[in-house]
C-alpha cells in the first residue's frame, strides 16, 4: 500500500507543478497564435465550456467537496492500490485548477483551438483530467472483462 500512496502523491505533485509552471508563463503575458491554435490567457469562471459559472465563488467549494468525496470513495474501496497513477494524475490536475480559483478567481486557460471550428479554451490540467478519466474507464472495462472471463 505504501508504493500505491507514493505513486499517487508523486503523480499528483508532478502534474500540479507542471501545470502551475505552464500557467505562470501565460500569466506573465506570453502569447502565440497561428491559423489553428491561439495560446492566450483566459480566466474560466465555470467548468468545461464555462458551465456552472453562475455558481461564482461557491464552485470551488463544490469541487473541493467532490474531490474529497472521491478520495474517500477510492480509499474506502481500496481502488488506490490498482489505480494509483491515473488517480494521482486526476487529483493533481483537479487541485491545480481549484488552486487557480482561489488565487486568480478562475481557472487559467490558454489553449484555444479554432481550426475548422471553435472549441473551448483549455489547459494542461484539463487534458490530464481527460487522460486519467479515459485511463480509468479503459482499465475498469478491461479488468472487468478479464475477471468475467476467469469465472
From TrEMBL:
Active-site residues annotated for this sequence: 109, 126
EC number, as in UniProt: 3.4.23.36
Catalytic reaction annotation: Release of signal peptides from bacterial membrane prolipoproteins. Hydrolyzes -Xaa-Yaa-Zaa-|-(S,diacylglyceryl)Cys-, in which Xaa is hydrophobic (preferably Leu), and Yaa (Ala or Ser) and Zaa (Gly or Ala) have small, neutral side chains
Highest taxon in the source lineage: Bacteria
GO molecular function terms attached to this record: aspartic-type endopeptidase activity
Pathway the protein takes part in: Protein modification; lipoprotein biosynthesis (signal peptide cleavage)
Gene Ontology annotations for the cellular component aspect, listed alphabetically: plasma membrane
Transmembrane annotation, as ranges: 58-76, 83-99, 119-143
InterPro entries per UniProt: Peptidase_A8
Annotated localization: Cell membrane
Keywords from the UniProt entry: Aspartyl protease, Cell membrane, Hydrolase, Membrane, Protease, Transmembrane, Transmembrane helix
Membrane topology designation: Multi-pass membrane protein
One GO process term, biological-process aspect: proteolysis
PANTHER family: LIPOPROTEIN SIGNAL PEPTIDASE
Sequence similarity: Belongs to the peptidase A8 family.
HAMAP family, per database record: LspA
Functional note: This protein specifically catalyzes the removal of signal peptides from prolipoproteins.
Protein's name according to its UniProt entry: Lipoprotein signal peptidase
Organism of derivation: Hydrogenimonas thermophila
